[in-house]
Design a protein that fits this description.
Blueprint lengths: L1 E8 L2 E6 L3 E6 L2 H8 L5 E5 H4 L12 H7 L5 E4 L5 H9 L4 E4 L17 H11 L4 E4 L2 E2 L2 E4 L4 E6 H8 L5 E5 L12 H10 L3 E5 L5 H10 L1 E5 L1 H4 L5 H8 L9 E7 L4 E7 L1 H10 L3 E4 L4 E4 L8 E8 L6 E7 L22 H13 L12 H18 L3 H21 L4 H14 L1
Parallel strand pairs: 1-4, 1-13, 4-5, 5-6, 6-7, 7-11, 11-12, 12-13, 14-19
Antiparallel strand pairs: 1-2, 2-3, 8-9, 9-10, 14-15, 16-17, 18-19
Helix pairs in contact: 4-5, 4-15, 8-10, 12-14, 13-14
C-alpha cells in the first residue's frame, strides 16, 4: 500500500530534490493529514530535526505543527530521533511508530564490531517495543546514508538491512539519488532488499507511476510517496485501488463498515467502480450482486455512511471502512446489521453527541439547553460531592456517577473539549511511563 509523506521544514510542508533543493512549499498540513489518512498510513518527517536545526530545548520550527497533527491519523514520525526519551515522547503524543535513521548506525564500527548502535537500539526496543520501530536504510550508491543524507558510512545496504531487521518491525529504504527526481526508483535494490529480509519493507525515493507502485506491491514492498502526490503524477485513490487484490476474490472486495467508536455496522462488497464512487462522494458505496449495480448506502433512506478512512488487510483482499453513520444502518431499522437495537450503543461519545444536538437544536423543555457556564460548573461540584459523600450502595454509585458524567460532558462541550481529547491525554500519560 501507499504511505503518503508530509515532510516539514521551517514550519512548512515541503518537497525537496535529493533531500536538498526546495521544489514545493505548502502551508496546509491540517488538510493534507485529513485527506491522506483516508487512504492509509501517513509518514510525517521533521527535516530540521534530521539536520539538527533545533533550539536550546531541542525543538524546531516544525515542533508545534507536528504535535497538532499526530493524533489526526495513523501517523509514523521520523527525523532526528536520536534518543529513547524523544521516541517515547512522540509515541505518547500519538505517533504509532517512530522512524530511526542515523542514530541506529555505528558509523565508526571497527572490524569485529557491530555496525548497529546496539546499546541505543536495545534500550529503544525495551522502551517502546520492536513493533513501534522503523529503521531507515537510506542509501547513496549502495551505501547507508546518515546525518540527513549529508554523509555515507561504509555499510552496504543489504548487510545493514539484515542487521537492522533484528531491532525493527519495518525497514524504510530511500534511494537518495532518486529522491524528488520523479525518474523512478531503484527497483533492483528494492528487490534485493525484499529478498534479504523478512520484515515489512517500505520503498521511497523517485517512485512516479502507478505501474511502479503496483510492481512494488507485487514484489511485497509498500511505497512511501511524496513528490508524485504533490505534483499530481499519482493519485492516492488510484494507488489504493492498484494495490487491492481483486483477482483473488473474483473482482469483489469484502468491505466491513465500522463506526468511529469501533462498532461493526455492516458488510458489503465493492468492485473498482464502487471504491471510486466512495472516494469521489465521501459516502460508502457497494456493488449489489443481486441487482448487478452500484448502490450508495442511504441513497433511498438518507441513512448514508460518511467515510473517515479505509484500511486494507495484510492480504489486500478485505477493506475496513471507518465511517460516521447518519441514521440506522440496517434495512430493518436497527443501528447495525448485527443487532436488533434501533439506536447506537451508549457511550461517552454518544452522550456528547446528544448534548451537542440539544444545544444546536433545543427542544421544548430541554434541561440541557438551559445550562449556562456558571450553572454547569455548580452542578459538576454538586454531583461530585453526592458521589463521594452520599452514595453508599452500588446502585447509588451508578446513579450519581451517571449524573456526574453527564454534567462533565456538558462542561466539556461548552469549552470545546471532546472525550477523544480526554482519552488521548490518558493514552499519552500511559505511554509516557
Amino acid at each position: 500500500m501507499v504511505i503518503a509523506s508530509i515532510d516539514m521544514k521551517d514550519g512548512h510542508v515541503v518537497q525537496l530534490k535529493n533531500g536538498k533543493d526546495l521544489v514545493i512549499q505548502r502551508d496546509d498540513a491540517d488538510e493534507l493529514i485529513s485527506e491522506f489518512n483516508k487512504y492509509g498510513e501517513v509518514a510525517v518527517i521533521d527535516l530540521d530535526q534530521a539536520l539538527r536545526n533545533t533550539d536550546e530545548k531541542g525543538n524546531t520550527k516544525n515542533t508545534e505543527l507536528l504535535k497538532s497533527i499526530l493524533r489526526r491519523g495513523n501517523v509514523r514520525v521520523g527525523g532526528g530521533i536520536r534518543d529513547v526519551k524523544k521516541a517515547r515522547e512522540l509515541i505518547s503524543l500519538g505517533a504509532e511508530k517512530v522512524i530511526v535513521g542515523s542514530a541506529a548506525w555505528n558509523a565508526n564500527a571497527k572490524e569485529g564490531e557491530s555496525i548497529m548502535n546496539t546499546a541505543f537500539l536495545e534500550e529503544l526496543v525495551k522502551a517502546i517495543g520492536k513493533q513501534r520501530i522503523i529503521i531507515s536504510v537510506d542509501a547513496i550508491n549502495g551505501k547507508i546514508a546518515v546525518k540527513g543524507w549529508t554523509e555515507t558510512v561504509n555499510i552496504p545496504l543489504i548487510q545493514g538491512a539484515k542487521e537492522a531487521e533484528k531491532y525493527a518491525s519495518e525497514l524504510l529504504f530511500t534511494c537518495v539519488e532518486k529522491e524528488g527526481c520523479m525518474e523512478g526508483t531503484d527497483m533492483e535494490s528494492c528487490r534485493a532488499l525484499r529478498n534479504a529480509v523478512k520484515c515489512r519493507v517500505v520503498a521511497a525515493g523517485g517512485v512516479n507511476t502507478l505501474e511502479q507502485i503496483t510492481e512494488l506491491e507485487k514484489m511485497g514492498c509498500d511505497v512511501q510517496l511524496g513528490m508524485a502526490l504533490y505534483t499530481g503524477k499519482v493519485s492516492l485513490k488510484d494507488a489504493f485501488l492498484g494495490c487491492l487484490n481483486f483477482d483473488k476474490v473474483g473482482g469483489m472486495i469484502p468491505v466491513i463498515a465500522q463506526s468511529v467508536e469501533g462498532e461493526v455496522l455492516m458488510l458489503g462488497y465493492a468492485n473498482k467502480e464502487a471504491f471510486k464512487k466512495s472516494f469521489d462522494t465521501g459516502k460508502l458505496t457497494f456493488f449489489s450482486r443481486t441487482r448487478n449495480t452500484l448502490w450508495t448506502k442511504g441513497e433511498t433512506s438518507g441513512h448514508y455512511l460518511e467515510i473517515v478512512k479505509m484500511r486494507v488487510d495484510c492480504d489486500r483482499d478485505t477493506v475496513l471502512a471507518t465511517v460516521i453513520p447518519h441514521g440506522g444502518v440496517c434495512h430493518t431499522g436497527s443501528f447495525t446489521c448485527f443487532s436488533s437495537e434501533p439506536d447506537e450503543k451508549s457511550s461517552l461519545e454518544r452522550l456528547y453527541k446528544v448534548i451537542a444536538e440539544r444545544f444546536a437544536n433545543p427542544r421544548p423543555g430541554s434541561y440541557t439547553a438551559t445550562l449556562d457556564a456558571k450553572r454547569v460548573r455548580e452542578k459538576v461540584m454538586e454531583e461530585a460531592e453526592e458521589l463521594t459523600d452520599d452514595a453508599e450502595s452500588r446502585d447509588d454509585i451508578i446513579w450519581e456517577a451517571a449524573d456526574l458524567l453527564y454534567f462533565v460532558s456538558v462542561l466539556m462541550y461548552k469549552e470545546g473539549v471532546s472525550w477523544k481529547d480526554v482519552l488521548d491525554e490518558l493514552d499519552r500519560r500511559h505511554k509516557e511511563k
